[in-house]
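Hi D.,

Good news: the full-assembly prediction came through. Inputs first.
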Amino acid sequence: MAYIVVQILNALSFSVLLLLTGLGLSLVLSLMNFVNLTHGSFFLLGSYIGVQWMASGAPWWMAFPAAFVLTGLVGALLDRYPFRQFYPRTHLMQVLLTYGLSVVFADLMRWGFGADTLSPMLPDLLQGVVFVMGFPFPVYRLFLIATGGSLALVLWWAIEHTLWGAAIRACVIDRGIVETLGINTRRLLTVGVVLAAALGGLGGALGAGMLSAYPGLDEEVLLLALLVVVVGGLGSFTGTVLSALLIGFVTTFARMWLPEFANFLTLGMMALVLMVCPNGLLGRETRQL
Amino acid sequence: MTHRFAARRRSVLLAGAGLAASTAWPGLTRASGEPIRIALLTSLSGPFSGLGESMRAGLQLLLAQSNQEMGGRPIQLLVEDDQGKPDEAVRKVRKLVGQDKADIILGVISAAVALAIRDIVTESRTLTFIANAAANALAREAASPYIFRTTKTSWMLAHPAALWVHENVATRGGITLASDYAAGREYVADFEDTYRQQGGTLGKQFWTPLGTTDFAPLLMNVAALKPEFIYAFFPGADAVRFLKQMQDFRLRDSIRLIGPGALFDQEDVIPAVGAAALGGFNAFHQSPGAPASQAFVQAYQQARQRLPGEASTAGYATGQVIRSGIEAVGGDLSRKEAFKAALLAEPVATAFGPMRFDPRNNQAILDIYLNEVKPGPDGKPLNTVIKTYPGVQDPGPGNARP
Amino acid sequence: MTSRAWISATGVDTAPGRRAGGWRWLCLAALLCGVLAVFGDDYQLRFAAEILLVGTAVMSLNVLVGFAGLVSLGHGAVFGAAAYGAAIASQHWGSDLLLMLPVGVLCGMALAALMALVSYRSSGLFFLVLTLVVGQMAWEVVFRWREVTGGADGLRGYPALTVAGLPASHPLALFALALALAVASGWALRTFVRAPVGHAVQGMRDQPLRMRALGFHLGRLRLQTFLVTGAVAGAAGSIYPFVNQYIGPNAVHWSMSATLVIMSVLGGIATLAGGFVGAALYLVAQTQLSSWTDRWQLLIGMLFVLTVIFVPHGIVPALRRRFTS
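Then the structure:
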């Protein structure tokens, strides 16, 4: 019994990690219809910032806001050029641009941070264990579940229950009408992209404790995030949360029972979901007019 | 447009003429003062980039110490990135051999790369020195007269580990846990063979795919078994994550962990995991405390402010082997048979100790150290030699596993 | 997200080859190949053969992406699966081209058909992800089925290529074969694109609802496109393992598919010749740049980004616009 509870906690922590990787991408892709494949680079940058910050002796809890702000800044710069011209372009063009940029960033980060695997020096507070029904469970994973969960909740509330969220969602459907309401859509989209980048960086700083930071993580995270967001369906943040939970649980239990085939099973499950629901778990059918 | 074609044809003709001239007068190209082209094929991007950079640093240290010349001729170092991908490596090696006219190729981190380029370098008769890849096949059915391996095979690390574990840890109740790919399978299979031969019995074998991010579900299963020891192997970032997550779940204190040295590499894994590596045992041909490598360790620490691991030591040692070969032929690299004979005749003094080569497969015969990761003089985890298995020799050709 | 949202802004052209200057470019290409055949050394010929084979695969991807609007991240898997099929078959039944080609074509078509069936109802981003997932499942099979595919180490030591009993492993022979295949595939794809089915496929890309209203069966059109492009990629894939006598799981990985897409964009998505230009540019840049600098990935990435920003339709259409009036 205790064993199952702990495995459920494991699955939950992995789901939250997936959600963290997909947060920013969900915002920018799901809601703003901009395919941003540099998301993985933001995540990795945030990881590196988190690692360097914690190694430098500054207060550890500030590593996360620092990663948030710094990656947000990078996002703002990118929005200025070249993202802005690509918002109205087709998905394919966005994919190509952001993929090329991600290759450039990967190399720059390898140049700047080196090729070694780096791990953050977590504070003692986060390094302990709690005993869940006799099994030791790392505090850091609980911390991840707590912060990831609250982030998701805040984001969900902001998107579904504030005017700002409504305006962003409306921009995708009909930008012209939103402009007629007197809302500066360009600034709105910029804020959206910056927030998405910042969330990616924050996710990276939080995830570094579990994944470590190394060149190549950006590609792995990008793939995971893309799968999570797309399987969840576009246009819905709840969809992303659901698919993160689904993928997290399937992967964890697959690793428990059939560890060699875990990846294959996860991929198969994703393919099945997309076959049965061609627009993702909670996607809305879009029509061409 | 016609002008462009004329130019191209002219340059192609000139290149052709130049090629013809250089092949017709071999003596001219081997004149003294003409640099020896040594090509380092390593991974500077992709999953093994940390190891690749370390190997390059080790080699560059040796070249610097030799004043960029060997056997009276200057050395031109060509560095090629194989990205950890055999397809890329094959293309680069063909370029090195066909276009850049490299005299010697060395390096190769990944076993898959080593196997992929084996036929190409053998066909083109280019002297090649494998400095990291551990694939058993290269010492057995895929051995080549032109490939020297200045490093270990998987068997050479797994065999002494099994001997030591059987003698000092437990004769039953252990399990294995490794990355499910060629290297992981080889290490575990060889460990199991020797352990069984000694009379031990192994429990369950766990496998996990490359690039696993979350080991927690597996670790819970493993912990529930309460094994006497775990023989494990993970490469690169997987090793870091595995050790840290074992530590997170407080399993490092209660279960003894043994593995090939790469799991606890001094340069590429220990700095990232810190205390999570303490108490680990590993069998390796390299150790920062080994007497033979002291001079190199000090020089490397000065140059890069860190203790060397396998890749950097291997880069340095391979450079030493190449240097002794070049000096034996007096800088004349057309005398390939003499080069090879010199290496096979006498052991070469390297940072791994005196290195002898098995004449059947040009495989190095090395001392294997059993390291325990203990706190060093500065408090940081350090691979400390607790036992040495001298002159471990791979069984060689005719011993391929079915 | 409909497929129209994907492609329309790239300004896709009508059937290729109909503009006036087409023959001049063909002669240029023929001359280049002739010079290479006469003066090229072993390394250059083998490299050129590789470029031609990969270029053929990219050309088929161009048809899939540019003409049918199906942006697939699984085409590398189709190419790689055919390569593995040919290599494994050669271990059992010899490596004659007359066997390798059908094996490769069949493997390519099989995996392509699987992708078509799985992604029957998907479009846009979902289609992209689905093809990626299916391709990765193929990779998992290749990586794990060690006994047959060699796993992470890949396959080597299989017999060299022969044609009707005559050895064809010399670089010049490989180059000639790759060239012949490229020409044949180009002709086949051109015929497909200009045929009524090709026009219907382009209609499907632009206006799927209207096509459906006109009575076209979109699923069948998709399947046909997948089969044709899968066959071409499979044919190219069948010769690929014999260029270097090595095939590894990387040829099936999604990064291979991504590389094919990059090459196709560099050359020009909705063109047939663009595949070869893109493949040549990418492979040459990648192989040569890394000798000069450590930061070669940065340079390639920048090259790609600049192409996407300033020459979004690819190099071949830009050249066409510049040199033909």
